[in-house]
Design goal:
This protein is mainly α. The protein is 46% helix and 2% strand. The protein has a two-stranded antiparallel sheet. 24% of the residues are buried.
């Protein structure tokens, strides 16, 4: 009898894991690794915007003096070139937009490359920029049959947007831009008809506003407020119109449930 408890004690000792007998325990699985244990992937950075050159930029008067020759060279109204330059960069030859458009006429490098200007730094040269931008205007004028409204919209929003929407561009930026360029064009003595383009801009603003109104209604209006709840006034077997009695004593098949009105 005295040997049996001792035997049990020896058996228990034999079953205890070796890790509990003086060996170091493994780290808990929920312990966070040190900062150097795992390499962190570098964050993807946006491409750097073109940097303006260190040389002094030309004055407004210098740029204005260049425009007549460039406009005449490509057969584009001087007033239109002036209006686009004013709207795009306000005569700042070193201007760079947040999207990477460069120079006086805010040309994107791929657009400039279509006209042989493959160096971004070359777009900071005022005459190079004016030349490429005016050539782009000339091509748009040919494509859209001298429709100044469509040309100006395409210069701002892109030809793809104008073509896909059948010239019904509702971007607020494009509408403001088109109106500003046309007004500036007129002040600079432009003679091409532009009233229909302005009228279109005003009508497209209405489309834009109606679209905003529909989105607000969808976002904030509870559709249940537009529904009426009814309750039957007869037994179910009388809901069949063919079984409904007609006469002064008959009741309406349905009536408005006033409790459902909120």
């Amino acid at each position: 009898m005295t040997m049996r408890p001792l035997f049990r004690l020896c058996l228990l000792l034999a079953l205890i894991p070796l890790t509990t007998r003086g060996e170091p325990a493994a780290p808990a699985p929920d312990v966070a690794p040190s900062a150097g244990a795992k390499a962190v992937a570098p964050a993807r950075s946006r491409p750097a915007l073109p940097a303006a050159p260190g040389r002094p930029r030309p004055s407004r008067a210098q740029v204005q003096a260049m425009i007549p020759a460039v406009a005449a060279r490509h057969g584009v109204e001087e007033s239109l070139v002036r209006a686009v330059v004013a709207a795009e960069s306000n005569y700042n030859a070193h201007a760079v937009s947040h999207a990477g458009a460069v120079g006086l006429m805010q040309l994107m490098p791929p657009t400039a490359a279509d006209y042989g200007v493959t160096s971004v730094q070359a777009l900071f040269d005022p005459e190079t920029n004016l030349n490429a931008g005016t050539r782009h205007l000339k091509r748009l004028l040919r494509k859209y049959g001298n429709d100044y409204g469509r040309v100006i919209m395409a210069y701002n929003a892109g030809e793809g947007v104008v073509d896909r929407t059948n010239s019904q561009v509702t971007y607020l930026e494009t509408l403001n831009y088109t109106e500003a360029v046309i007004q500036n064009y007129r002040r600079n003595g432009g003679k091409a008809p532009t009233q229909s383009a302005l009228s279109q801009v005003h009508s497209l603003r209405g489309v834009k506003n109606r679209g905003q109104a529909r989105r607000l209604l969808k976002k904030y209006l509870d559709p249940s407020l537009l529904s009426l709840k009814v309750k039957p006034t007869l037994d179910v077997r009388y809901l069949n119109p063919s079984l409904h009695d007609i006469g002064p004593e008959s009741k309406p098949m349905f009536e408005l449930d006033s409790r459902a009105i909120r």
